[in-house]
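Inverse folding, one chain.
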C-alpha cells in the first residue's frame, strides 16, 4: 500500500525540498523540535532504538514515533531500519551534525544563565545564526525572562529595528482606521441633523395645512388637505426611524473608536520603549560602527561607481540591511528560498555577480566570506 507518508517522501525527493503538508502551515511548524533533535542524536549515537530510548528516559514507541514525525516533517528518510541494525542515511547524518551544533548552542545559553545563579541581570547581546533563531528563540526566551526578569537579552539580526518598523506600521494602520471611523461618525451626525430639519419642515407644513382646513370651501378640499397632513406625519415617522438607526450606528462606532484609541495608546508606548531599546543598542555599537564606516569609505573609492550604487540600493531595500549573503543549506542566506544546484555552481565559479531571484540580494559562496575575514 502506498500511504500518504510515502507519497510525501516521493514528492519531497522529486522537488528536492521538504514538503510542508496538511497541518504544517509554514516553515516554523514544519521544523524539528529541540526534543526531537535530542532523540535523533541519541539514535545516531546508539544506533539502537531501545538503548536510545533508555538514554532519553522515554519508551521505545515514543522514540520511533518521534522519528517518524521528523521524517514526515522533513519529507525524507533519516534512519534505515533493518531487522538486525539501525543505520543513519547520509541526510540523517548531516542533520545529526547540525543538530549537535544547535544543541550545543542551547547548552551554552543555559550555562550562561546558570552562571548568574539566579541573579542574572544587565544587558546581554547575542549573535545568533539566522538559521538557529527560529529554533532557539521560542524555546529559550520565555523561560529566561521568567527566571531572570532583570536580564535584558538582545538578539542580533536586526530584531529591534524590525519590531520598531512593525509597530510603526501598526500605528499608522490604527490611525487611518480611527480617522475613517471619526469621519463616518461625523457623516452620521450630519445625517441626523438633516433628518431633524426634515421633521421641522414637515411639522411646519402640517401646521399650514391645518390652518387652511379652517377656511375650506368644500369637503373635497378638506379631504385633500387631510391626506397631505397624513403624508407629512408618515414622513416624520420615517425620519424618526432613520434617526434611531443612525444613533445606534454612532454608538457602535464610538465604542470601536474608544477601543482603538486604547490600543493605539498601548502601541505608542510599546513603540517608545522599543525605540529606547534601539537607541541604547545604537549608542553601544556606535563606536564599532564608526570604525566600520571609515573602513567602508576607504574601500568605496576602490569600487566601480555603478556597482556601488547597485550595492547601496540592494542594501537599503533589504530588511535586515544585508546586501551580500552566502548560501546556507542550499538556500539564500537572506530570504531562505532554495537556490538550484546549477545556480550554486555559477555562484561558486565567481565569474559574474549573481543576485537572488527572490530577494535581490547578491549571492556569494561561503569561502569568499571566510577569505575576507582573513
Ligand atoms: Zn534571497
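Residues assigned per position:
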Amino acid at each position: 500500500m502506498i500511504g500518504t507518508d510515502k507519497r510525501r517522501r516521493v514528492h519531497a525527493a522529486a522537488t528536492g525540498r521538504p514538503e510542508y503538508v496538511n497541518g504544517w502551515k509554514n516553515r516554523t511548524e514544519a521544523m524539528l523540535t529541540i526534543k526531537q533533535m535530542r532523540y535523533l542524536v541519541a539514535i545516531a549515537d546508539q544506533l539502537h532504538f531501545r538503548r536510545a530510548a533508555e538514554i532519553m528516559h522515554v519508551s521505545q514507541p515514543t522514540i520511533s514515533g518521534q522519528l517518524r514525525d521528523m521524517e514526515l516533517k522533513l519529507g525524507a528518510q533519516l534512519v534505515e531500519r533493518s531487522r538486525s541494525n539501525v543505520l543513519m542515511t547520509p541526510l540523517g547524518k548531516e542533520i545529526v551534525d547540525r543538530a549537535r551544533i544547535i544543541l550545543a548552542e542551547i547548552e551554552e545559553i543555559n550555562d550562561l544563565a546558570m552562571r548568574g545563579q539566579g541573579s542574572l541581570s544587565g544587558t546581554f547581546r547575542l549573535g545568533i545564526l539566522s538559521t538557529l533563531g527560529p529554533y532557539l528563540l521560542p524555546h529559550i526566551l520565555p523561560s529566561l525572562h521568567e527566571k531572570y526578569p532583570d536580564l535584558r537579552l538582545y538578539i542580533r539580526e536586526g530584531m529591534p529595528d524590525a519590531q520598531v518598523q512593525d509597530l510603526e506600521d501598526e500605528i499608522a494602520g490604527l490611525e487611518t482606521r480611527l480617522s475613517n471611523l471619526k469621519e463616518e461618525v461625523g457623516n452620521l451626525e450630519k445625517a441626523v441633523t438633516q433628518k431633524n430639519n426634515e421633521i421641522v419642515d414637515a411639522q411646519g407644513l402640517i401646521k399650514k395645512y391645518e390652518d387652511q382646513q379652517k377656511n375650506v370651501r368644500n369637503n373635497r378640499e378638506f379631504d385633500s388637505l387631510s391626506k397631505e397632513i397624513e403624508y407629512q406625519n408618515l414622513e416624520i415617522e420615517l425620519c424618526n426611524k432613520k434617526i434611531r438607526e443612525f444613533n445606534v450606528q454612532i454608538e457602535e462606532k464610538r465604542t470601536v473608536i474608544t477601543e482603538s484609541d486604547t490600543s493605539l495608546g498601548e502601541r505608542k508606548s510599546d513603540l517608545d520603549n522599543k525605540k529606547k531599546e534601539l537607541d541604547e543598542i545604537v549608542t553601544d555599537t556606535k563606536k564599532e560602527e564608526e570604525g566600520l564606516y571609515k573602513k567602508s569609505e576607504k574601500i568605496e573609492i576602490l569600487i566601480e561607481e555603478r556597482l556601488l550604487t547597485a550595492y547601496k540600493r540592494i542594501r537599503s531595500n533589504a530588511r535586515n540591511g544585508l546586501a551580500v549573503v552566502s548560501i546556507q543549506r542550499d538556500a539564500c542566506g537572506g530570504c531562505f528560498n532554495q537556490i538550484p544546484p546549477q545556480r550554486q555552481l555559477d555562484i561558486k565559479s565567481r565569474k559574474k555577480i549573481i543576485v537572488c531571484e527572490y530577494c535581490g540580494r547578491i549571492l556569494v559562496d561561503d569561502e569568499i566570506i571566510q577569505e575576507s575575514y582573513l
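Confidence is low (pLDDT under 50) at residues 1-27, 127-131. The chain has four domains: 4-98, 107-157, 161-284, 305-373.
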